[in-house]
Design brief:
four-stranded parallel β-sheet; alpha/beta; 4 strands
Length: 187
């Protein structure tokens, strides 16, 4: 797609609200209301609107998404399109849609446990699932995590793929997670 991940002044095709002091959030919000965002952003927003389920597939980088996906979220899920104030979390504009994070890690499953060297994987999912996706109203499904696929046997890789394929066949029967601190951090 050659998607531009950087949020810049070039994202606004119309007149700026305040040309003397550029504030991306304010300008993107106003541009969203007047359909004055660049076509790449509008095209991606149309895809989100047409989807019932949005799957974010990525390799885990530094306990988060790669920069290009972060940039996609920053530019596409802007105020006025995905949320407003008020109009977030359960009232977010994407409240009738499902979202799922599907990612690979460089570390083993044991590394991402409560007592593992990296801590429970739920800790680093909080800002992504709760702070970004649920904030925009998405009902978030449990993540699909493929731990260290480059370190496992071919048989184990085939098992990961088969497990994911089976899950996708039944995905519409799944219930969203409860995006609350308890789900992420325990009691």
């Amino acid at each position: 797609m050659d998607f531009e991940p950087r949020a810049t002044r070039r994202d606004i095709t119309g007149t700026l609200c305040n040309p003397e002091f550029f504030n991306y959030g304010v300008e993107a919000y106003e541009a969203c209301k007047t359909r004055s965002l660049t076509s790449d952003i509008i095209d991606e927003q149309k895809k989100v609107l047409e989807a019932d389920l949005v799957i974010f597939q990525f390799p885990l980088y530094w306990f988060s998404v790669p920069a290009i996906l972060k940039g996609w979220m920053d530019r596409v899920l802007c105020q006025g399109f995905a949320f407003d104030i008020p109009g977030f979390y359960d009232s977010g504009f994407l409240k009738n849609k499902l979202a799922l994070l599907s990612f690979t890690t460089g570390g083993t499953a044991e590394m991402y446990t409560k007592n593992g060297v990296s801590g429970d994987f739920r800790y680093f999912l909080w800002p992504l699932q709760h702070g970004a996706l649920h904030f925009c109203g998405f009902k978030v499904l449990a993540p699909q995590i493929s731990f260290a696929p480059e370190l496992v046997s071919e048989e184990e890789k085939r098992g990961m793929i088969a497990s994911w394929a089976q899950r996708l066949r039944n995905i519409w029967k799944e219930e969203p997670i409860h995006c609350t601190p308890c789900w992420y951090f325990g009691q």
